[in-house]
Amino acid sequence: MEKNNSMKVIKLDFTGCKAAWEFHERIREAFDFPEWYGRNWSAFVDLLWSECDADKVEIRGEHTLRKEFNDYIKMTHEILQEEKEHRAKYGEKFEYKVID
């Protein structure tokens, strides 16, 4: 995670990802989740809500993934959108953006 003009930005890079376990490992690393992260969608939601204080997530490398990952990308976007809406209820900003 890096600070960008006082914003905490997570850079999530899926470039060249080849397996489901690797997809979730990249999430774990980008979000700096603990080693015990369950590498599944429920664990992602739980830790996103409880452990993530980032203001923005930048996603890279989606276009490099095989079409078998389409559901993974869709789920990632849905979860991040839910986080954005959840934080908005409390007046907090959160955004995500596909960079390339």
Name the descriptors.
Barnase, Chain D, 100 residues
Structure report:
This protein is α/β, with parallel strands linked by helices and 100 residues long. It has helices at 20-31, 41-51, 70-88; strands spanning 2-4, 7-13, 56-60, 95-98. The protein has one domain (2-98): Barnase, Chain D (2-Layer Sandwich), CATH 3.30.370. Helix 2 (41-51) runs parallel beside helix 3. The mean pLDDT is 93.
Helix and strand arrangement:
Layout: E1 2-4, E2 7-13, H1 20-31, H2 41-51, E3 56-60, H3 70-88, E4 95-98
Parallel strand pairs: 2-3, 3-4
Antiparallel strand pairs: 1-2
Helix pairs in contact: 2-3
Short description:
This protein is α/β, with parallel strands linked by helices.
What would CATH call the architecture?
Answer: 2-Layer Sandwich
Q: Major beta sheet, specifics?
A: 4 strands, mixed
Strand content: 15-25%
Shape: globular
What's the CATH C level? Alpha Beta
- The CATH topology annotation reads as Barnase, Chain D
Task: Report the total helices.
Answer: 3
